[in-house]
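Field reference: sequence -> structure
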Amino acid sequence: LSEKSISLSGYDRLPTNLSSDGENVYLSRNGQVVDYVNLPKMSTDMAYGRENGAGPFACLATPTPGSQNGSAVAVSAAPQTATAQGSYAGAVNVTLSAVGAVYYTTDCTAPTSASPPYPGPITVDKTTVIRAVSYEPGKLPSEVVDLTYVINGGHSLPVVSLVAEPDDLWSEETGIYAKGPNASDTYPYFGANFHKDWEKTASVSLFETDGTGFSLKCGISIFGAYSRGSEKKAFSLHFRDYYGAGSLEYPLFGDAGLDSYETFILRCSGQDAFYSRMRDVLLTSIVADKTPVAVQKYRPVVLYLNGQFWGVYFIREKANENYVAGNYNADVADVQITTFNGTDKPEYTALVKYASTHDLSEQKHYDYVCSQMDIENFTDFWVAQMYIANTDIDNIKFFKTPDMKWTWLFYDTDLSFSSSGYDTVKDYTNPSGTGSGSLSTELIRALLKNPQFRENFLRRFAWQLENIWSTETVSARANELEKLLQPEMQKDCDRWGYSYKNWLGSVDALRQFPAQRTPKITEFLQAYFGLSDAQMEAYGFPKG
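Structure field:
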């Protein structure tokens, strides 16, 4: 959605174009809005304006440039079907009905009056997307109805279907999934279409295993950072008024989640997409079970993109202002959310400056810092990050509201749980910054000067080793996720050309990681804090 701003002075006609996908257009004088229109999505040769020059905004019968607007014209009613879209164990006959003539396509292009007319029941014996439109005499064409029929899929997980214009996905000029003409030659192909902030019109349908679900128009865009360069990409789904609904009214995560979403993600595990496929979900979910650290909820699904099987994905909450507002009962406008070093949020930079310029071993200074941040959340966040050996630690997010202190979100852990010998205790407290030196360590280093924080930090570390990062806890959650994904994984591996055996091995490597990591991280902690064996035992750390 864009908003046009241009001076009217000297123009009989504005030197600008409006998107057929819809835009907000404002008329202002001296900085005050005097009129506006929320232009809806429109098809070719449609006009939109005030009926007869003075009435409400509406679709108009014909364009009248240079003259007063004409009369409004109705839009045809959309086709209906008695054959619900969804997953079927065999062939189905799809019936369509409408007041006017119905035209349809099966190649995912939008149908027009030049498309094949509906001939009667359509036999669907393989997974197919039917897109249909109706034309009533004297009316504008209806909206396009998208119907997905998954035939003999044999899926144990819920199915998500995304349908979009093929050119909006694959065209080298306009496709969000294509490299395009400006991509670099090396991964992750910066400059490619899929690195651009493009959003395309689509429809999304969810077919639950019990036959329920939803279907809605939406916008889609490619999601992620470096993972955009992978063959299997993630999507952001956006619900806006000009697509038809400003939000998705559906409990995506059952009773554990919200009832309304402005956006959500279809995530394919980032850099872990061709390994365990569950790393981030595994790590964030077991942390969420036992700590106050914020995480994104999840549920596994299989995705069909324009009728093609696209593999195993996870529906995830999108970590933005709406996530905070919905999960923490706040107004979106009051949410502050930031990433990395938080330099765009003066309140946070002021907190870091205070912590780095005051001796937090003095209780009054420590108490002030604690009044500005959720110290329990922060402690558990950094303990967990140190343990999992996250090599992408620069990618962090944290947030606050008027009723909340700064709170950290544990997310994007796909590059973790593989480097058991990584001394994160030393690296994450490096005065020069973590990893590449870009993420500031000022806050945690300042806090560790306080005896109370240091004591609690070490006790929470020992507690997490026993209660979160034990082989038993990690294995139990990995086994649970493996059982959920296993019936779909052979198909996923076949689709993307990867080994099912290697997938099993990657999952097993997650189960084995705690046995390798725990003695290493214990050694790193003891060395960094200069603790004796007796002190380590007193804190609750396992004996070497």
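Note: The two ends are 58 Å apart (CA to CA).
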